């Protein structure tokens, strides 16, 4: 298991900026229903319930960063990846809740109409 008590954590703004620079691949470890309702544009879905670190995408010169709803599941996924010997850069502290609190954009689905919206 992960030897340190502290998993490398980055803020939503740091993640946003790293994505804009093309440095990272953001991996969302929430469940498909959560991802369908609201997600960060460009995040890939790898649910924690079926999380296999060996299946993480080939970053092709980028680093993988994990994200969830609040930071708890992405912390768990980071520890699983570390234990499996799979390199992951960090996880996003506070998850998508902190991302939205920082005023960063999300993609959401209107449950009444099914319409997809990009919004801040």
Give the strand tally.
8
What's the number of domains? Answer: 1
Shape descriptor reads globular
The overall pLDDT, averaged over residues, is: 93
Which residues sit in consecutive blocks of at least 5 with pLDDT less than 50? none
Per CATH, the superfamily is Rhodanese-like domain
Tell me the β content: 15-25%
CATH-defined architecture: 3-Layer(aba) Sandwich
Structure description:
The protein has 120 residues and is α/β, with parallel strands linked by helices. It contains 4 helices and 8 strands. The strands form 2 sheets. The chain has a 5-stranded parallel β-sheet. Strands 3-7-8 form a 3-stranded antiparallel β-sheet. The longest helix is centred in the middle third of the chain and has 12 residues.
Kindly list the characteristics that best describe this protein:
single chain, 120 residues, alpha/beta, Oxidized Rhodanese, domain 1, five-stranded parallel beta sheet, three-stranded antiparallel beta sheet, 4 helices, 8 strands
Show the helix and strand layout:
Elements: E1 9-10, H1 12-20, E2 24-28, H2 32-37, E3 38-39, E4 44-45, E5 63-67, H3 72-83, E6 90-92, H4 95-101, E7 106-109, E8 116-119
Q: In a few lines, what is going on in this structure?
A:
Helix content is 28%, strand content 22%. The protein has helices spanning 12-20, 32-37, 72-83, 95-101; strands spanning 9-10, 24-28, 38-39, 44-45, 63-67, 90-92, 106-109, 116-119. A hairpin with a 6-residue loop joins strand 7 and strand 8.
